[in-house]
Write a structure and sequence with these properties.
499 residues, 3 domains, 6-stranded parallel beta sheet, Rossmann fold, 17 strands, alpha/beta, 7-stranded parallel beta sheet, 24 helices, 44% helix
Length: 499
């Protein structure tokens, strides 16, 4: 069996999936296609891929030339020939676009939601995802809530394809099998300058601003002096650390809070992640959305006090007996921490059943046999969308029906690139104007990308707006220079469907 894995290949989640699942399924050949945007690569992952004879088509996308970079990867992948399975991870715009392009050299397509790619997606992104989901054989999510939301949003049209499967968590396996004594914990704390004898409060699990680190630290700053002296803050920013300035802001916020703390930016291997879970006393998760992250399962396994936003749904774990300290809003965090620190032993007892709950939850929802069945036995589902099979003819009909003389495309990202490519094949690039307020020139577009002051009196029959939710921005930026008809990217695709 030949498998193509598409996504951010330097993400711990894809690394985990390959390490814990694919390498256990007797896959003959694994090829990975990186579609993330990285400021640095993890050497450990490169060593892992090489050691296991996993071929890398492309490590990442060029952030300045996303579309051109994506198409170069596409041309390389075509040279590999037919794949038995293409597994798409995290359904953002790059991966969804890949899903639309690769159907002719993949026998089976699996589209895998991770959580925020659905929970934080706007309507434009969800409608774009639809075209790829209709071409997929299976749609996997690691949350029953997301599975139900997918069914509702797409009116049960995709119901036969939707599967609930969780990734395995190697961190828990390490806790179960490795001999981690107090000496090992002490060495870990010394390495990362974590003060002993204090209650360790870990804030979030990545460098993403969505974890509300600043607001958590502000809540800690407002604690009574006595309780502030009881704790030590850890902010793990080892994952998703794209913005150094933000990391520096959090370090400064800890200093100003008058509490002791540290920001960890070093890469942590699985054993060190396990140690972080074990030395933590209180874990705080108040991000806007979360879909049963491995981090939450791991802290539950350790029976750690966990404070979460009431808006985060962990009902499946709670049904198994887990307990979480919930707050209605981050403004309640200071009071909740005061209570936890003042009554630590009593509060800790409330979490005594979380380990058993996490074990039962993982037993019911994760396992390589589910993946084996999907890869080897699952029958291919019906392809419900043919839009991209004869797109050229559809575009020609669309141009003719509306009597368009030329077309403007707003946005020079992946969607703008795909729209440009498909239109240029039909009407030629002379009749297409690409414009973007943030970009001067990119290497895949033959002309100059027009900024507001360069658009001049150019008359456009229609403008396709590729960034979602940017209608007001488009009008504010270009004003009366764009007086033509404006449609969104998904509205354009919907019109082509009807041609």
């Amino acid at each position: 069996m030949r498998v193509l894995v598409v996504g951010d290949i330097y993400s711990i989640h894809i690394y985990n999936f390959i390490h814990e699942t694919l390498l256990q399924l007797e896959i003959d050949e694994i090829v990975v296609w990186g579609t993330g945007f990285r400021i640095e690569f993890k050497e450990e992952y490169d060593v892992f891929y090489k050691k296991n004879n996993i071929r890398i088509v492309q490590r990442e996308l060029d952030g300045a030339n996303k579309f051109d970079s994506l198409m170069k990867g596409y041309e390389k992948v075509k040279e590999y020939g037919m794949f038995d399975v293409c597994h798409l991870h995290y359904l953002g715009y790059p991966v969804v676009t890949v899903g639309l392009l690769i159907k002719n050299f993949c026998k089976k397509i699996i589209a895998n939601y991770w959580g925020s790619d659905w929970l934080r997606a706007n309507d434009t992104r969800k409608r774009y995802q639809k075209y790829m989901l209709e071409l997929s054989d299976y749609i996997v999510a690691d949350s029953l809530q997301i599975c139900e939301q997918l069914k509702d949003y797409y009116n049960n049209r995709l119901q036969e394809k939707i599967q609930y499967i969780r990734f395995k968590t190697p961190v828990i396996s390490i806790m179960q099998t490795a001999k981690i004594d107090e000496g090992i914990k002490k060495a870990f704390m010394e390495k990362y300058h974590i003060s002993a004898g204090r209650k360790i409060v870990t804030c979030g699990y990545s460098a993403s601003k969505a974890h509300n680190h600043e607001r958590i630290i502000k809540a800690i700053k407002e604690l009574s002096k006595g309780n502030k002296e009881k704790l030590f803050i850890i902010v793990p920013m080892t994952y998703d650390g794209k913005y150094k300035e933000y990391v520096d802001e959090i370090k400064q916020a800890i200093k100003e809070s008058a509490a002791q703390g540290v920001v960890i930016t070093n890469y942590l291997d699985f054993k060190e992640v396990a140690l972080l879970r074990l030395v933590t006393d209180i874990f705080i998760n108040v991000e806007p959305t979360d879909a049963y992250s491995s981090t939450m399962i791991e802290y539950a396994y350790c029976n750690k006090i966990t404070i979460i936003g009431k808006w985060l749904d962990y009902s499946q774990l709670e049904k198994q007996g887990a307990y979480f300290e919930k707050i209605d809003g981050i403004e309640e965090l200071t009071g909740t921490l005061e209570n936890v620190l003042n009554n630590f032993e009593e509060v800790q007892k409330l979490f005594s059943r979380n380990k058993a709950a996490s074990e039962k939850f993982q037993e019911d929802s994760a396992g390589n046999e589910r993946w084996r069945k999907l890869y080897y036995e699952g029958s291919m589902c019906s392809k419900q969308n043919t839009l991209f099979d004869n797109m050229g003819e559809r575009i020609e009909s669309w141009i003719r029906k509306n009597n368009y003389q030329n077309v403007g495309i707003y946005g020079a990202g992946i969607l703008g690139g795909l729209a440009y490519q498909k239109l240029a094949e039909v009407i030629g690039d002379k009749q297409i104007c690409l414009f973007d307020k943030n970009v001067n020139q990119i290497n895949w577009y033959p002309g100059t990308i027009l900024k507001p002051d360069l658009l001049g009196e150019k008359e456009l029959s229609v403008v396709i707006m590729t960034p979602g939710g940017c209608m007001d921005e488009l009008k504010a930026t270009y004003g009366n220079k764009v007086s033509s008809e404006i449609i969104t990217y998904v509205e354009w695709l919907a019109e082509l469907e009807n041609m």
